[in-house]
Amino acid sequence: MFEDISHRLAENPPRRHYGAAVVDVDGDGRFEIIVAGYGEPNRVLKWDGTEFIDVADESLADSHRQAISVAGGDIDGDGREEIYLLNTDSFEGAKRDADRLLVSHGTGWIDLFEQEENMPAANLIAGRSVVAVDRLGTGRYGFFVANYGGPMAFYEQGDGGPLVNLAAEISLALSTGGRGAISLPLLGQEMDIFVTNEGGANYLFANQGDGTFEEVGQAYGLGDMYENGRGVSSLDADGDGRFDLVVGNWQGPHRLFVRTADGDFRDVAPRTLAAPSQVRTVITADFDNDGTEEIFFNNIGQPNRLFARRGDTWLEADIGAAAEAGGFGTGAVVGDWDEDGVLELLVSHGEQDRQPLSLYRGETGRNHWLRVLPFTRSGAPARGAVVTLTGGGRSQVRCIDGGSGYLCQMEPVAHFGLGDLTGVEQVDIRWPGGAVASLVGPEINTLHRVAYPGT
């Protein structure tokens, strides 16, 4: 399935890297990869048409802290995504170094947490994953932090006001061993939050429609309280048009939680997919553009694994060069940086030892594709928007990523493989908050940028 193209990484020394995120860092309309460095410089990898070069300035590199997770989201509604860097010098409970929330300022970046008015809100609990959430459907995002050994956090900023941790106010401030997190319209049209936990049941924070949440994980069959969760990703695993969840459990059975007719979730993972591994990030994407998403398990100290849907069955697929039997994989992200319609996969390493980054390309033959990038009313990527493509007698559904995998955040683009289809009937976009738009008979083998309705 995968071809190794790591030679396209211009500078690639062995380092300790953890999570990664796909964000338009420099505001030029194209996406870069931010890679978290643990006691090493963070990296900002930009595609220059030939290779990826590191363009991180001093404020982004921040080589004196220990970053493990990163995400982007437009917290102030100005059309430019801010960058949340989750640092941890302790893996449980209290820590010394606060996280960073970087806002673009002229030619540099300002850390909002270092401003005096925001210091009282700084996150000093060891966290794992961070995701962007538009809880009210306004196009302004908050950052949810899955903390470990202390209350979960949720940061928002009012108009020109200080940062506020609203977690207690909106019923998110539960304490456990938080690990992975994902946010999407899972139960309804608002963005919910699902958290994989260690040493306790997983959480599903259901959005109540007014921006507050209720924890309903066990009620919906997602608790899995005797396992130790890691990576999580969403997909429509059974073709019913609703989102399901694939969860990687550390050295325990992996889960494929599919929505039932009653609305709850049931694990349908076949034995080979469920087989325990030392899993970190989990990714779902159509790497071969055949019209069905694959499931990628990024393992640490064990070969990575790939599963493909064949009819009603999930089977292990040939992963090719991305097996990385000796890899210490921690994070991974997907995107199409060279804009050829074929997804690339970047894998970071380093939790157990320093290793270079890896870069792979999917193999698609002559399969067609279509990509959709929706924007908020302010012009930022509309993370949490749901995109549905209809063509060839079936529908495919994707959610624009607010944060998923484990420690990571994928590109904010809905990528659809089309196989041998030479046209599609329609693409429908639904934004958080309920706004909708449609593309009728859109051109294939193209990236469609879609403005918020009425802007």
Helical content class: under 10%
Low-confidence stretches: none
List the total number of helices: 2
Q: Proportion of β residues?
A: 35-45%
Main β-sheet description? 8 strands, antiparallel
Overall outline: globular
Mean pLDDT: 96
* Rg over C-alpha atoms, rounded to the nearest angstrom: 20 Å
Alpha-beta content class: mainly beta
Give a structural overview.
The N and C termini lie far apart (41 Å). The protein is globular, with a radius of gyration of 20 Å. It is mostly beta strands and 455 residues long. It contains two helices and 35 strands. A hairpin with an 8-residue loop joins strand 2 (17-23) and strand 3. Strands 10, 11, 12, 13, 14, 15, 16 and 17 form an eight-stranded antiparallel beta sheet that branches. It has a four-stranded antiparallel beta sheet with strand order 1-28-27-26, with no helix packed on it. The protein is 2% helix and 44% strand.
TL;DR of this structure?
The chain is mainly β and 455 residues long. The chain has helices at residues 58-61, 271-274; strands spanning 2-4, 17-23, 32-37, 43-47, 52-54, 67-73, 82-87, 100-105, 108-111, 127-133, 142-151, 153-157, 163-165, 175-184, 192-198, 203-207, 213-215, 229-235, 244-249, 255-259, 265-267, 279-285, 294-299, 305-310, 313-316, 329-335, 344-349, 358-362, 368-374, 386-391, 394-399, 414-419, 426-430, 436-440, 447-450. The chain has 2 helices and 35 strands.
